[in-house]
Write a structure and sequence with these properties.
Blueprint (H helix, E strand, L loop, with lengths): L8 E11 L4 E16 L2 E10 L7 E4 L3 E5 L1 E6 L17 H11 L4 H17 L2 E8 L11 H5 L4 E8 L6 H22 L3 E7 L7 H14 L4 E4 L3 H9 L3 H8 L17 H9 L11 E4 L5 H10 L2 E4 L1 H6 L2 H5 L4 H6 L3 E4 L15 H12 L3 H7 L2 H6 L17 E6 L14 H7 L5 E5 L8
Parallel strand pairs: 1-4, 6-7, 7-8, 8-9, 10-11, 11-12, 12-13
Antiparallel strand pairs: 1-2, 2-3, 5-14, 14-15
Helix pairs in contact: 4-5, 5-8, 8-9, 13-14
The structure holds zinc ion.
The site of zinc ion has 6 residues, from loops.
Length: 454
Amino acid sequence: MTGIKQKPRTVSVLASGIADAELARRGEIAAVFEVAPEGEGTAALRFCRFTTPADAPGRVIDRRGCILTPGFVNAHTHLDLSEIGPRPHDPAGGFVPWVEMVRAQRPATPDAIERAVQRGIALSLAGGVVAVGDILGAPGGRPTTAALRTLADSPLRGVGFVEFFGIGTRADAAIGMLGPLADELAGFNSRTGGRFRAGLQPHAPNTVSLEVYRVCAHLAAARGLPVSTHLAETPEERRFIAEADGPQRAMLERLGIWDDRELAWIGRGRHPVEHLAPVLGGLDGPGGHPFLLAHVNDADDAAIDTIADTGASVVYCPRASAYFGAPGAFGPHRYREMLARGVNVCLGTDSIINLDTPGRISVLDDARLLFHRDGTPARELLAMMTTRGASALGLDPALFRFIPGGPVAGVVATPGHDSGAGGYFGGDDPAEALMAGGSPPELVLGERVAIGLV
Ligand SMILES: [Zn+2]
């Protein structure tokens, strides 16, 4: 089939400052982009150069008063929970009642999942997010790939991690299901060309047996599938792994799936990271991706060393950690020590249920929390929400920078911190102005957003 090749169009975005993980330009500036339609509603977006607003060529989008950044990467989210919306939670009640609320409320049919994921995609774009590590939840405990096509057809890049459970009396069934599932996902990836890939998500060490993790890691390495898991998230998980006891054990017994075979590897005083260490280190090989570990709220020095040595990435979800009371149980999250030890730490939001921004799902709000609470440097936070997230998802980090001549995944404009009081101060560090403010980001150019311009 042949099509009429359309000429690329030039688009200039005017702003009052520009920042990415490596560069900062202060004062009024124009960023020049080339938008090349590719058919099927998509356009390739390329950054060309910076110039002055007076010299801006092509169609001009004026966002003076704003800071321009690359699009954001949300490395851990659950878009299929987006229709549940924000819900209050009392950490004193524990994690299990919350999990049971989600089990009861999550969409169960393909149509309902599709609707929820579409809403999540819209909320992500409203938050300037152009790439996600999305967890495709398992309604009724059965893994589903229903949302993969929706995500792959959306403006988002990234990975859809298909979640599964498999512990106790369900471990053998999970092992039996994993081979065909891994084949299906590898087939999906060979057709989508890498823009949006499928991966596997063993849910967590308290719901997936270590032997099932082993099979999953082996299959993922053989099929080239990315793997993510929740790890070291809650005190209930720590107690379950170390002592084979507590509310997680009680839940498995209540569900009638507890099996004493689990005592071969839990109830031995181990930290959750130590428990998974043999698997985290087992993904070497031609198709092996390092694990993406969600949360790691609970990390001793040995855990940080293990994660660093295995090359796994950590996705820290600051608002989720606060919502579930993790600092009260484990102390402050040790993301800065992880970074110093060489761990790739990026940012995630977890689901809309634990967010305070009903109108968007954005890691910018998590970065802002860390900027205000911890005084973490704005440029480091910008890397955690762009290039580091990209690396964690196996995307090219250069897509999330302004490199002359290079492709970009999206362009976001966000009003500076003092925009309400008469404009952004050009002398400030643009990344700091972004973090200090509270204004919503706007995705002004994206691979599908741009199509309206050409
Ligand atoms: Zn999660």
